Amino acid sequence: MVAPLSRLRRALIATLVLVLGLSGAVVVTSTAQAAVSAPILSLGSLIGNTTNFTTANVFVEDGVDMEVSVWYLEPGVSDPAARQLFCTITVTAAGPAGGNCGGTVPSGELGIYTFFATADDGTGESPASPLSSFRYGESASSVPLVVDGPLGSGGSLTLETPTVEISGTAPAMSRVEVRATSVDPLTFAIICVVDPVPVSGEFSCSAALPLPTYGQWTVTATARDVNFALAADPPNYPYTVVIAPPEPLVAAAVTAETLTATVDGAPGSNVGAEMLLNGFGTSTSAGFCPATWTGSPLTPPTDGPTVACTFTGLPAGVHILESAHFLNATATLGREDAIYVPATPTLAVEPVPGGAIFRGTVDPLSDQLTIASARLDALEVVVRDAADQVVCTADADLSTGAWECGAELESGTDSFSAEARAVGFGFNPDAFGEVDGYIGGTSSATPSVATSIPAATGVATPEVTYELGAASISVDAVGLPNSAIQIDLYRVEVPPGDEYQYGASVGRCGLQTEDVGEGGPIGGIPPTSPSVVDDCAFTGLEPGIWNIYGLQYYYYDSSGYIDHYVMIPEAPSLTVIPSGPGQVVASGTGDPGYRVQVRQLGGAAACATTVTTGGTWSCTVTGLAGDVLLRAQQQSQGFVADPPTFFGALASYDGFSAWTAPRAVTVPVAGLPAVDSGPLVWILEGYDGGDLTPGQQLSLRARGLPVGTDVVIEIRSTPQVLGSAVADALGEFALDVTVPEDLAPGEHTLVGIATPPGGVASVIEIPVTVVAPASTDDDLGSGAPDDDEPVAAPDGAGTSAGDRSDPAAPSAITSSIPTLQRLFDDPWVFAAGGGLALALLLLVAFPAELLNSTLSSNTGRLGRWFVAIERRAERATEWFTRVSRTRALAAAVLVGLTSLIFGFVDPEYGFDPVSVRMTVSLAIGLFLITYVSAWISGAIARRAWGLETQVTLQPVALLFAVVGVVVARILEFSPGFLIGLVIGLDLLSRVDAAVRARVVVLSTSVTVGIAVAAWFGFSALTALSSGTPGWVELLISDALVATTAEGLTAAMASLLPLGFLAGHEVFRHSKPLWAGTFIVVAILFALIVLPTAAGETAAVEDMAFWMLVMAIFAAVTLTLWALLQFTGNGSRDGDEEGVEDGAEEEAATASAR
Length: 1153
Prior knowledge:
Elements: H1 2-22, E1 40-43, E2 48-49, E3 53-59, E4 66-73, E5 84-91, E6 98-104, E7 111-120, E8 132-136, E9 146-148, H2 149-152, E10 156-159, E11 163-169, E12 175-182, E13 187-194, E14 202-208, E15 215-224, E16 239-243, E17 249-255, E18 258-264, E19 270-277, E20 284-289, E21 306-311, E22 317-327, E23 330-341, E24 348-352, E25 355-361, H3 366-371, E26 374-385, E27 390-395, E28 402-408, E29 412-427, E30 437-440, E31 449-453, E32 463-469, E33 472-478, E34 484-493, E35 501-502, E36 507-510, E37 516-517, E38 520-521, E39 532-538, E40 544-554, E41 557-558, E42 562-568, E43 575-580, E44 583-589, E45 595-600, E46 606-610, E47 616-622, E48 626-635, E49 650-654, E50 663-667, E51 697-702, E52 710-716, E53 720-726, E54 733-738, E55 746-755, E56 762-770, H4 777-782, H5 820-825, H6 828-856, H7 859-884, H8 887-903, H9 913-945, E57 949-953, H10 957-971, E58 983-987, H11 993-1024, H12 1031-1054, H13 1063-1069, H14 1071-1094, H15 1104-1127, H16 1132-1145
Parallel strand pairs: 2-8, 10-16, 23-30, 42-49
Antiparallel strand pairs: 1-3, 3-6, 4-5, 4-7, 7-8, 9-11, 11-14, 12-13, 12-15, 15-16, 17-18, 18-21, 19-20, 19-22, 22-23, 24-25, 25-28, 26-27, 26-29, 29-31, 32-33, 33-39, 34-35, 34-36, 34-40, 37-38, 40-41, 40-42, 43-44, 44-47, 45-46, 45-48, 48-50, 51-54, 52-53, 52-55, 55-56, 57-58
Region (Disordered): 775-811, 1131-1153
Keywords: Membrane, Transmembrane, Transmembrane helix
Transmembrane segments: 828-851, 888-905, 920-941, 953-971, 977-993, 1000-1019, 1039-1061, 1073-1091, 1103-1124
């Protein structure tokens, strides 16, 4: 009976397991074993509960006494060691093989709890049962479902992408489902599930709608708590979502007031469009497309997904074409396109020989463009003939609407019309309100204008005459009225045994443009001036053959070429030897057969001869006396040009060489006149009529006096003898006298008394004015000046004296540089200037480059500081350009401010007429050497190398101007050292180092050229001035001085090979080119500017001061170099590579200042 009873027991146990399983219990089967097995655990709440109570059911093997423990882990805990006891069950061998117990988890601690059970029969704890989960969550009856964000606000939500973002709050641990339903086509899908909702109750998900996605969707959301109870519907439930397809595609064109457009919508959509006239103002509808559509979104169009639209009779203006899709009877996102219909231009035709010129105006509709926040790059006017062929085009002036173009045409009768075409119609980035598209069009054509085109009748060459001078050719040319004459000069090279070689034009007169071809102007508008050229002079020509090549343009015809040649010979050599009273033998070498002429400089004496076959010549100049200067030149004879080809009537001319340098010679007087017993008629020379000061020296002389004449010089009110001398064998008298130091200021008389041997005294009286000398620093230090006497400014950066309320009083820069005559009076000054130039090269330029290379290798220490200053400078420049709007205004403001700052180099600078004149002079000089110089350099670079440039502004350089004034006041030096940074020239394209170096040399050459030209002008003005100069003359003189001094100092400073100066570009590219350029500029700087810095024109002879300044600069520079060289910790190779990379990046705007 044992076996049947065992089977019966097991059958009962199986039945119990089944019953417990159906009631939510989990049962464990077991066989009698020696070790306790893990119990089987189930929870009374299989998913969870909205309260913290649940029950645990366990099943264990039979026949064993044991203690079963039920454990749980709190939400978020996974370590079994952190278990907490939930409840216990005692199982006996004789009792049931399982049991249940109840308990609670911590109240309010929502989340998912993990349960397991273990059994202990006294021999040890069994393994843990499989894990069970219990959700402790919120009740749907107490916590509603809430959907927030755009979807929850209600209404219809239109989206451009098929993704719905859903968020809100729901009962913690609940399950949220989001469903979407589409009516057309019928589609249903669960698009989002959040299970479980976090303990916070907040949920979100990104729900992608199923395809096809375009159209209207109904979106619903539900939340069920852990007990499957359904939460209340959220507000505004259900939700409507419209997924809009991409905006329609529009292809349109406007021609002759007619818009043709094709609108492409999304697949399956219907498309509609409406034309709104004056769409950005008070708009009116011009119709719908398709035409059967009323425009109402409630009654969508029935055509699609592509429709073709035509709107005619559109007036000139800016209109709007609106288009949209319609899906599921719902309008989706629309599109707006701005339509620009140009106004019809006016047309006037001017027939000219061989063609016609067309002119007129067209309204650019600027006001409507502004309202529409739109821009127009150009409004092109196209002229067509009767065959609808394009004759010419022109861009109208967008301010005035004026336009003009021309064309070469066949003679005869034709008719013409014009139309306007928009170019670059688009959104104005400076405004707001951009639409989806911008479509520019073409206007209606003007009424046809019939005209008769006259034939070109042929044009003769202009009438040309030449005036040949010393190494110069002057050309006068006269052409037809309304013609344009162009004269070019070419240097002809004749290699031995080879043909004539021609280079580029070295000079041009008359029409300057290059845009003229064989059949007329390339630009269409024929030049009509100048028809007379009368100021064409080519001077300073080197010896050789020169070709004059020119023609005249007459509307769309041109003449034959002027093809003339002039031989400019070498200057002959010249030796002069007195050969007797009143005559000199002049001789030398020249070209055999050429004619040599000798002339007295400043006189009429001359002689001429022909060079012998041996290459020598001589002739005798008569009618001379005393110290004279003679010079010579030669003229070629019988020159005949032999070009390989020529373009017109060939003509050859014999030109003149340059004059030789004057040769000085003293000529005995021929037949001195006998002594007359009566008074002599003689002239006392050496006094220029200006005011005298005590201590001033005068060099007096007279000529033509009888030999042995005694001459006494006196100064009278109270007579004082200044000196005496006797006329020499040439009848000349020379005497240096000094105005007495104790001579009182006022009116006096300079008296010369000439008494020939055996004759009577002859008296010359010259009224003179003596003025008090200017005060010196010692005078100012000795005590206060008298109230009645003006005190002059102390020597320094500049000096000025006199009454500053007088507009004609001198300023700090008046006559502060030497004249050309001053340098020739003391020729050894040139040697001193050359020495100072070499000192500048050795003591300034080379140490500067050494320091610059070391700075490049220490970018890790100094680079951030330099970069920060550079960025601030760039931001300041951008702000200044943006505020000033126009570059000319910006340049004027910069020049004005810089001039005011530089004015303080004068210690007496203030609110007085002299300061005003000085400021205006500085402004003129600054404008010439900055803006004008940069503009000229840019024009040459564009003409010679095709480089696009622009004049750039650097307002941050005003800070350097202040530094320049401080340096000027300390070193008594010109403040122009830093002005080259104010306005400069930028390249607008990426170029290599060779081109950048050429641009720098070009810019420097133009600046130096302007400065030297101003110096020549100052020298000439000084030489021609007589008496006391007026305010205007002093203004011109001061402006010339400012231009000279500031131009040369700016050029000198810019050539220093520092990384932030333009000279570094040339130094890196070619050191010989840099050295040659630097030496030339340095010599001019030393000769002209350094005397200014010392405050007197004789200061260049005393080189000690400037040698000391340059030695100090070199010492400081080398000390800084050594400090950086031996303490730097950066990698030189790496830093220099970075510097070079930066330089290459900046090549697109390489500075040529």
